[in-house]
Queue: 3 jobs
Job 1
Amino acid sequence: AEYRARAEGTNASGRPLSLYFHIPFCDTVCFYCACNKIATKDRAMPAPYLQRLHQEIEMQGALFDRSRKVEQLHWGGGTPTFISHDEMRELMRVTGEHFTLLDDDSGEYSIEIDPREVDRSSIAVLREIGFNRLSLGVQDFDPDVQKAVNRLQSDEETWSAVNAAR
């Protein structure tokens, strides 16, 4: 009740909203990462989590006036690009159903990507659903450092993601 009252009380300000969605799934564990994560090869594992996230989006959306636009949206992780293109599209659709998303690039809609998890089609889907900023997971280009932190990715994978984004 206290949270609801505080959230609804912010509506008087009319200020824009910022949303963060945590997608905790990763293909492998990177040793430097302190984020809440689930390392798995099972690409079906996010489905129940995403269903609950959709419910949470609906509950939270009911607290805020639709006149308050979402100026900042960020998907972090884990590795948000672990989920399928269809799951990404659905998550953004559900978000737009309960919050007022901008339909231009005036806001900052960002996502953390793992260059090992994306290709040109993935980048195209991210742009299609509204992302206009990417945070690239590049810890180091030195293979010895990559091995030490368990984040092996080729220069080619990294530059391919950068070039696709351009």
Job 2
Amino acid sequence: MTPVALIAGAGGAGAATAAEFARRGFHVVVLDTRLEAASAAVEPLRQAGLAAEAVSIDLLDVGEVTALRDDLVTRLGSVDVVVHLVGGWRGSKTLGPESIDNWNALNPPVVGTLVTLTSVFGATVRTSDQGRIFMVTSTTAAKPTAGNIAYAAAKSAAEAWMAGVADFFDESAARSVTVAVKALLTEQMIAADPDKAWPGYTHVTALASAIADASTGPVDNGRRLDLTREEYSGA
């Protein structure tokens, strides 16, 4: 049976991760609130003859996510890998009333969508011999400042949730994995500022490869993969 990878988020990282999984023989399902974004990520894969589909969905709506799970399991037999790439960033100069606005804006996409996805798909992934759930965090979450307090708190909450997912996967073949980056780099960013060195940034293709490697090979449950040691070299 063809393994199924669910990619939540159709931005640069989502498109790169979907492409990597599709090339490795997975049936890829890309999720986004915007159907046009999800479709743009999967169309090149479908044109290449790879198995990929786009879904527009509100990942905060438990009913919608549950219906998606039931549909995928019915049609495809399983959901083996879930990759959470939904995020966002907001900051301020210091702690103040705007920090509340930042928290209220960041908590739903960073934490809420992860909570919904893992709660709905967790039991399904747990039954797979190669079950994996991934979340991408930022190393800045470990060093909160007054200006990024809301972002750091949201990422820290998401990391704590993934630790709970790891506990849920205990005594099964499934794995909860958190991937840490400083920030992500796309070809569009490089083209816009070609002379910049981008120290410490992780290219989205490197992120995609790391996640796919951890899906097709052995990895410890509860593992934190730190990709910040790999700096962009222009390759």
Job 3
Amino acid sequence: MRRPSADAPEGATPRSLHEQLIAGIRERIVSGALREGAKVPEGALCAAFGVSRTPLREALKALAVEGFVELVPNRGAVVVPLDPTRLAEVFEAKGGLEHFIGLHAARRITDAEIAALDALHRALHDACARADAQGYTALNERIHADLAAAARNELICDIYKRLQTNILRARLLVNVDQVRMEQSLREHDAIMAALRARARLDLAERLEEHNATTGAAILLALSAPTAS
């Protein structure tokens, strides 16, 4: 049910509304509903979310910081195309964080958290078997977020989350390829084996290699010529 047209729906704080708007617009960009280079339709989004332009524009400012949109004078917000150079830098930076996460998560994660990750990993296998690219991508994001949280370093976790957000849109480029999805799943199998064994050096190496392989696959997909 649509919310009433207001800056803050009943029962929602301004902060929760802000987060909901950011997530909703981001999802439209990631899914392709808002296409690269297209002007963000503020009027249509205000109607869809039941809000005025003020909270919508605040959400667009946050998405500009994340790199999803660009605020163009006299034109409004425009969806930013994926930039291979920028993505390569993101993956390079994320590789160092993956190594850190592997070293510390292996020592600090609880048995209950490993069990929860095992359940997500089984769901990842199911998504791959169904060739469910969107489901696989969502589970993949959650698994990596939980591993980052298990490192027990809030600063690293916050930086990691921002970097992951930068590549979320690009992940679907490779996850729609069943061959790459199956390769990614094998990499996740190795990551989980190292985690269960609490083999910190092996886990760090597996996570770093998985990040590098994913980055290479995404950059290759972006460089491929598109059909006319």
